[in-house]
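Please, structure for the following, as tokens.
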Amino acid sequence: MSARAVPVMAWLLAGAAVALTATSAGLAAAAGTLDVGWGSLGIVMVLVFCTVGVMIATRHRRNPIGWIFCASAVANGLGGLASGYADYRQVGSSSAGSLAEAAASYATVSWIPVVLVPVAYLPLLFPDGRLPSRRWRPVAWSAALGITAAFLTSATQPGALEDYPGLANPYAIDNVVRTTGEGLSALVVLCALVASPLALILRFRRAGYEQRQQIKWLVWAGALAAAAIAIGTAGYDLLTPAVANVAIMLSVLGLPVATGIGILRHRLYDIDVVINRTIVYGVLTVTLAAGYLGSVLVLQLVLRPVTHGSGPAVAVSTLAVAGLFRPVRSRIQAVVDRRFFRRRYDAVRTLEEFGVRLREQLDLDALGVDLRNVVNDTMQPAHVTLWLRDRNDSRTPGP
């Protein structure tokens, strides 16, 4: 594809995805099924995937990750259009036609390419768009065949459609070939999903400094998404479904955003600082929340005979947590730096020790040597030059 045709093709795919999604939203609104859930949040997903995909495809046209995002947005738009049309035609009632039945069948399985293709190929190809080596080609081909087989076997599954229980699958096939293909496709896809992160780990071990920083962006976003999905799923009954769905979807949307930053703008942001702050404030939130809940329960048991209510316990617990915020954060920051960011921890200790020596140092020459050593140890510059202002001439260099 020529250099001029790449932006045109990328924008055409993005425009098609947006048009399909807008049409599906209009159909869902007309059918009265547009709500704050996976369906409406799919609109945001399409916009994010389109934006990141176009940015990567136009600037790195040989990198297939951008095209994967654009294709996933189009596939998501097609699934939304099929779902909206099926809802509009009131699938399951006597007014449903053959086209609506086909749309409902496709909408039920449309998530398979939208979800599995990026999840399987993103770790394999990130960040340069190439496999770690030729030995990983069987994994890539196996993922493609497994996802295709999973889509076909799910689309021909007998019985009622999962998303439309009142409608039987019009393309159902009930034989040994389909059942065997369903089991094999699930096994192949599972093996590919396990092998893809291993490829990313292998690439990280062999990569240089710049590529390691890029990979950290994807790992950071993947860890946040996994944690949000686990917490949202476990606390689905405690939270409202809309809140849980929004939290999970936003965490998943972090994957394409982190991918775009890792490929296009990784030099502008220090991923180590982002990871550091995420770990510190994540542990701090969990610690303070656990301490708050524990103190409220304990104080309620102690003060109940006197206060006959939970108001004082909540007030005391809130003040205690507010007072513990800074010391607990400092303690967690020190532990995280010492365990995961040793260079930062050593630099802070070096500066603290230099501050102690500075109060007692009277020799100017020794102070200059000590200062240069501290700068070399903490900042690691290419060279260090120290200038000291003379009383009579400020242009006179010192030692």
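DSSP finds 13 helices and no strands in the chain. The mean pLDDT is 78.
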